[in-house]
Write a structure and sequence with these properties.
This protein is mostly helical and 332 residues long. It folds into 2 domains: 124 residues, Rossmann fold, CATH 3.40.50; 196 residues, Dehydroquinate synthase-like, alpha domain (Up-down Bundle), CATH 1.20.1090. Helix 2 packs across helix 3 and helix 7 crosses helix 12.
Length: 332
């Protein structure tokens, strides 16, 4: 890409030090690097969700004279003055399709959202070939996260018909390709399906919301440095088991899109658990040492993330959250 841009007469500065689950300080470093160079017309985020989220917030922060941490929350950016182009190299986060970025607050060991319409990219390039070199663990974690995005976008209290249609179409692609690409990484048809399914899932939750799974994943992932897709994928079966009392019709539709035969609402959780286990996400989560004594604090933090808990189809109390964490982490 750099050579192509240079050939077109575009001056390029590369920042390649974005860490996984990036902290706010990483974005501040990017902004300082850009500010100290010739005028920047556009920020390009070429990478996975961490890179794209950092690029989104960096582009928004340029010219604001604010630290990235000051943009955390909802609607704190205003008008973005710098162009933003996103090109995902993983199939899962859907960050290229949304106005949300998740960064790590190292002072609290907590993943925090920056939510603002100005984080929507001006141009998105979804090229499945960019995902060909994904490591197997990233393929699995990012892929299962895409499935979670579609599921939560469909069941959210704020879901719209548009979001639900996008979610079902996303699951049709993801359901037939996630297992295939984990088994056969060079399956280009499966890679194509994953890239499209991930993008559709991102569009789905951009027009709806994520819910309890993501609320529970943010403090867990932030405190114990767990990759986002491992946290969401490993928590989903337990959260959906909690939601099953009010989601029987939704689970039947979601299951059909995924190619699953759902006879009872609980079947959806079992099928999801089997998928997450097969691709290695459940084992990855349960391999993290999380003390049972720390679950109440995680639950308190998760329940406090109202932008994600409020859309969940069934209320999750702190006691419910402890129970869900315990089940997902195999502590009960």
């Amino acid at each position: 890409m750099r050579a192509t841009l240079h050939a077109a007469g575009v001056e390029v500065q590369v920042f390649a030090d974005v860490t996984p689950e990036p902290p706010f300080e990483c974005v501040d470093t990017v902004v300082r690097a850009i500010t100290g160079s010739p005028e920047c017309d556009c920020v390009i985020g070429l990478g996975g969700g961490s890179v794209m989220d950092a690029a989104k917030v960096a582009a928004a922060a340029l010219g604001l004279d604010k630290a990235a941490r000051e943009l955390a929350g909802i609607g704190r950016v205003g008008t973005r003055r710098t162009g933003l182009l996103l090109a995902p190299t993983t199939a899962g986060t859907g960050s290229e399709a949304t106005f949300v970025a998740v960064l790590t607050d190292t002072t609290q060991d907590l993943k925090v959202g920056v939510v603002d319409p100005s984080l929507l990219a001006d141009l998105v390039v979804v090229d499945p070939a960019l995902t060909d070199s994904q490591p197997a663990a990233v393929t699995a974690a990012a892929g299962i996260d895409a499935v979670v995005h579609a599921v939560e976008a469909f069941i959210a209290r704020v879901a719209t018909p548009l979001a639900q249609g996008l979610a079902l179409e996303a699951l049709r692609y993801l359901g037939r390709s996630l297992r295939a690409v984990c088994r056969t990484p060079d399956d280009t048809r499966a890679r194509d399906d994953m890239a499209l399914g991930s993008h559709l899932a991102g569009l789905a939750f951009a027009n709806s919301s994520c819910c309890g799974v993501h609320a529970l994943a943010l403090p867990l992932g932030g405190r114990f440095h767990i990759p986002h897709g491992v946290a969401t994928g490993g928590l989903t079966a337990a959260v959906m088991r909690h939601n099953s009392l009010v989601c029987s019709e939704a689970f039947a539709e979601l299951g059909a899109a995924l190619g699953w035969n759902i006879r009872e609402p609980e079947d959806f959780s079992s099928k999801f658990d089997a998928l997450a286990s097969e691709v290695g996400v459940c084992a990855a989560l349960r391999g993290v040492r999380v003390p049972a004594s720390g679950l109440p604090e995680l639950a308190r933090m998760a329940v406090g993330i109202r932008r994600l808990m409020d859309p969940n189809p069934r209320v999750i109390s702190e006691a419910d959250a402890v129970r869900i964490y315990s089940a997902a982490l195999n502590l009960s």
